[in-house]
Amino acid sequence: MKAEYINAFYLATQDVFRLMLDLETTRLAMRVTEELVPFREANVVIGVTGDLAGSLLYSFPKNMALEMVRIMSGMEMTELDAFVTSAMGELANIISGNAMTRLFESNFRCDIVPPQILIGGGQSLSMATPQAIVLQLQTSIGAFEVSISLRTAKS
Amino acid sequence: MMWKEKYRVGADLIDTQHQELFQRVSNFIQTVQSPQPWEAKLEQVKETMAFMQDYVIIHFSDEERFQEEIGYPELQRHKEIHAQFRAGIRRYADRVAKEGFTEELIQEFGGRLMAWLIMHVAAEDQKIGAFLRSQGGSHES
User: pLDDT tens digit string along A102-151?
Assistant: First the structure.
């Protein structure tokens, strides 16, 4: 997995957070992991197919997810119910779609499959690569991670 | 769900319809998320879902007609995005027909609808506004 893909995900996340939540994101450290583990309470997994194939994992603390949906809806949210998780899934879907458009500009044709929601930490997910890159991002309402495990499928 | 001035495209008809959509989706979410028993809010949920299906179609066709009028260069792409959204609403309508108006399914629909509407108006539709301004200003039809 090449680090050049990673920027597409950072820029897409930054863009969507700015447009939809009026929040700025700052890039913290980037690390490499050998396991794709949902380590926060609100997690969204998105599969990628095409020239790059594998999985993306968006991992948010519960309070941050509730605050994000409060910003969008204008209503206080108290639990990770189907409304909150569905909105989070769609947000991750939009970020991933935006990243796919950026990757297309670098000649990678990829598609995404509908989001899967995972509440709470748990078992590690299957990975397309021996290692995943974890982007750690900070906002004024909390920090979250985007883990990227993509292999080049294009010959 | 708040309408923001930054969402304004600069065409009265489109901006008025967007505000109506935000208001309706906002009312829908408030009803779905209110602490009343599900049965008590079911009628309002059904009414709003029916309204959304009709109104989205009216709004999209008005918006596409407007884009044609101003010679918007990304009309085809925008039409595809609208078609995807209509298909998304149809999929939920089909699921409701099969599974019934369950609270979880309607909450799921509400979450997606809200996120999609914000992104569509805050990003895609802003390109119409930018094009309009590049052609010399706002539109008052």
Answer: 999 888 899 999 999 999 877 777 777 778 899 999 999 999 999 999 98
- Tokens representing B129 are 């506004």
Domains of chain A: 3-152 (3.40.1550.10)
Instruction: Select the residue from B92, B114, B120, B127 to test the A interface by mutation, using most A Cβ atoms within 10 A.
Output: B114
Contact A151, A55 (CB under 8 A): no
CA distances (Å), origin B80, targets A22, A39, B107: 27, 37, 26
Q: Which fold has domain B8-134?
A: Four Helix Bundle (Hemerythrin (Met), subunit A) (1.20.120)
- The pLDDT, as a whole number, for residue B138 is 58
What is the rounded distance in angstroms from the CA atom of residue A59 to the CA atom of residue A32? 15
ipTM value, please give it. 0.90
Bridge partner residues of A89 (DSSP):
none
Are B85 and B56 spatial neighbours (Cβ–Cβ below 8 Å)? yes
Q: In Å, how far are A41, A55, A69, A114, A148 from A134, measured between CA atoms?
A: 17, 12, 23, 21, 6
Contact call for B107 and A89, based on CB within 8 A: no
Widest pairwise Cα distance in chain A? 49
Give tens-digit pLDDT for B1-53.
Answer: 778 888 999 999 999 999 999 998 998 999 999 988 999 999 988 888 888 88
Q: Do A122 and A136 touch, CB atoms closer than 8 A?
A: no
Portion 85-114 of A in contact with B at CB < 8 A? 85-91, 94
